[in-house]
Design a protein that fits this description.
heterodimer; A: 227 residues; alpha/beta; Rossmann fold; five-stranded parallel β-sheet; four-stranded antiparallel β-sheet; 8 helices; B: 401 residues; alpha+beta; 2 domains; ten-stranded mixed β-sheet; 14 helices; 12 strands; 54% helix
């Protein structure tokens, strides 16, 4: 479903005097439909950039990101936005909920940019699925951290994605809530038949996955000054 | 549904600045419409207020002063004319009706005008409309010490049927200059929305024979209001009094003389309009500034929306639409400001001149001004929208790892 070949991304670095420094260089990576895979990586290893490239939030410098027959790396920004809106769900470490919108509206917006429709029934069902059926009209600030993460999960699945990308999704939760959140993400993805690509440095999280890969083995950027 | 939701939430989140900005737009739109409408409506009302007469004959002087004095009961009379002059014009074959006026006294600032009963029984003050006396009252009789009071003056002075008053000498109220005569209110006029509403009418002989007035001029008049049989008669009399004679002034046509006055004070309207335009531009600028200033607070939300799949142009449209909606809210409130301001201005004009302007009149400015303001606000929204358009999503959203 997802095949990445020779993917590269550099950013200008102040330390290198504004010269581009390569952050991501992935020769090959594959993820099967419905597969749940965890990437182990330390802070600053470029794994967020890797997820942003797959989601189309960043444009690749080179390489292919073949997602269900479409080369995301070759798409223009508008087409990447559309693809993300329609087929990809993203769970952020910091949740990134819209603070001025209710829980229900956050989930509705998660589905509206793809289809252009707001299916309230589906949004409600997603929130009930994550145990927030009674909090539809609350604002994020009125919820606990764990509840906010569940809203983020419901929102990521609202557009019926084929792929869910999760960036340190339990990083802001305590251990018990982290475990609950992780179980919820995994179950929800399995129910929705969405593939899950999760990055984390937390051994407790990584231990839950059958498939775990070391991002350091995958990502081999050129040393500064050689990119 | 997405755009309305984003607009609604954004306006709610920035409710205070939305309200303040919409308020300044409301003032701008209201002011703009009032300036236009007061100009258009007052000009129309004054030009049409002929009180049923085509011309005024008075002492040699300014035609405008003559009209203001005899028709609008403003300004002083340029001088007196003799009863012989009145008789001459009254008998002229081109004259349909001639009503003499004598001014020079007031009651607590409201003018007392001496005239004949004919004004109230034979003249239509506007086509198809005659003066009417409120139930229980009547027009003053002959040379009696009786008064017929205009509705506005009666209301303001608290005069009712049977009340008595002592006139004061002069057109300006001076408590030290009270006449000895006592007049009884025998009738109150129904409102006419003309300057007649502000006048206390008494018999012509009353003013002429008031104690303290010089008996030498007892038969003199201030002016004669004239209805002519044909427009040609007006030109003929104009030639006779203004070109060939040099004692009297024949003011004709009444409407054109007032229109000329508005032409002369046109610069004032233009200054007011300029002020209103400036206010409108400042208001549109405040939309730009308030949205632009909140852009750093909005960056994260915009980046989240982008991450959820919102395209750049959707974000751009949302910001421009927000500016337009603030403009629309302001324009809507502006119509309330307009209504209140115009009603206030109309009251002042009514109180000062007796002329009623139509506050419900329709004019293209009533839809052009709000629409132009909305467009101007949307235009002001483009600059912050461009900033929103350029928000870098990945950089704004996440600490990289």
């Amino acid at each position: 479903m997802l095949t990445i070949t020779d993917l590269r991304k550099s950013f200008p670095s102040p330390e290198a005097g504004g010269q581009p420094v390569e952050i991501v260089r992935v020769a090959r990576f594959e993820l099967a439909a419905g597969q749940q895979l965890a990437l182990r990586g330390e802070s600053g290893s470029g794994k967020t950039t890797f997820l942003h490239l797959i989601a189309g939030l960043l444009a690749a410098d080179a390489g292919r990101i073949d997602f269900e027959g479409v080369d995301v790396a070759a798409l223009g920004e508008a087409a990447r936005d559309r693809l993300r809106a329609e087929r990809i769900g993203y769970i952020f470490q910091t949740f990134n909920l819209l603070q001025g919108y209710t829980v229900l509206e956050n989930v509705l917006l998660g589905m509206s940019f793809g289809s252009g429709r707001m299916d309230r029934g589906h949004a409600r069902a997603q929130l009930e699925r994550v145990g927030l059926g009674a909090r539809l009209h609350h604002f994020p600030r009125q919820l606990s951290t764990g509840q906010q993460q569940r809203v983020a999960v419901a929102r990521a699945l609202a557009n019926r994605p084929r792929l869910v990308l999760a960036d340190e999704p339990t990083g802001n939760l305590d251990r018990r809530r982290g475990q609950e959140a992780l179980a919820l993400i995994r179950e929800a993805c399995a129910e929705a038949r969405a593939a899950l690509l999760l990055v984390s440095h937390d051994q407790d999280v990584l231990g839950q996955f059958t498939y775990v890969r070391d991002f350091a083995d995958l990502n081999r950027p050129a040393a500064a000054g050689t990119a | 549904m997405t755009l309305p939701l984003i607009l609604y939430r954004s306006l709610r989140q920035h409710a205070l600045s939305t309200l303040v900005t919409a308020g300044s737009i409301a003032l701008a739109v209201g002011l703009l419409m009032v300036v236009w409408m007061v100009k258009a409506q007052s000009q129309r009302a004054f030009v049409e207020t002929s009180t049923g007469f085509d011309a005024v004959l008075g002492a040699r002087g300014s035609r405008l002063q003559l009209v203001l004095n005899a028709i609008f009961h403003l300004e002083a009379s340029p001088g007196n004319i003799s009863s012989a002059d009145f008789e001459q014009i009254r008998r002229h074959p081109a004259v349909k009706a001639a009503i003499p006026l004598a001014v020079g006294d007031n009651y607590r600032g409201y003018r007392i005008v001496g005239t004949l009963e004919d004004l109230f029984t034979k003249v239509e003050y506007s086509p198809g409309r005659r003066y009417a006396v409120q139930p229980g009252g009547r027009v003053f009789a002959g040379a009696a010490h009786e008064a017929l009071v205009g509705s506005f003056a009666a209301e303001r002075l608290g005069l009712r049927l049977g009340d008595t008053f002592q006139p004061y000498h002069g057109l300006v109220f001076d408590p030290a200059n009270q006449h000895e005569e006592t007049y009884t209110v025998v009738g109150i006029l129904e409102p006419t929305n003309t300057p007649a509403d502000r006048v206390l009418w008494i018999p012509l002989a009353g003013i002429q024979n008031m104690k303290g007035h010089d008996p030498k001029f007892a038969t003199d008049l201030s002016a004669v209001l004239l209805q002519l049989r044909t427009p040609q008669a007006g030109f003929m009399l104009d030639m006779m009094y203004n070109r060939q004679g040099n004692r009297l002034t024949f003011a004709y046509p009444v409407g054109a003389i007032i229109a000329d006055l508005f032409g002369k004070i046109g610069w004032f309207d233009r200054v007011l309009a300029l002020v209103a335009y400036l206010v409108a531009f400042v208001a549109a600028g405040s939309v730009l500034a308030s949205i632009y200033a909140s852009m750093s607070a909005r960056r994260r939300d915009l980046a989240i929306l982008r991450a959820l799949g919102a395209r750049r142009h959707t974000i751009f449209t949302a910001v421009v639409a927000e500016a337009a909606v603030i403009g629309a809210l302001g324009a809507l409130a502006g119509s309330i400001v307009y209504g209140a301001l115009l009603a206030g201005v109309a009251r002042i004009i009514r109180a000062q001149t007796g002329v009623a302007i139509d506050v419900l009149a329709v004019h293209p400015v009533l839809w052009i001004a709000p629409l132009a303001m909305i467009a101007l606000c949307a235009l002001g929204g483009i600059i912050p929208a461009l900033k929103a358009y350029r928000v870098p999503v990945a950089e704004t959203l996440a600490p990289t790892s």
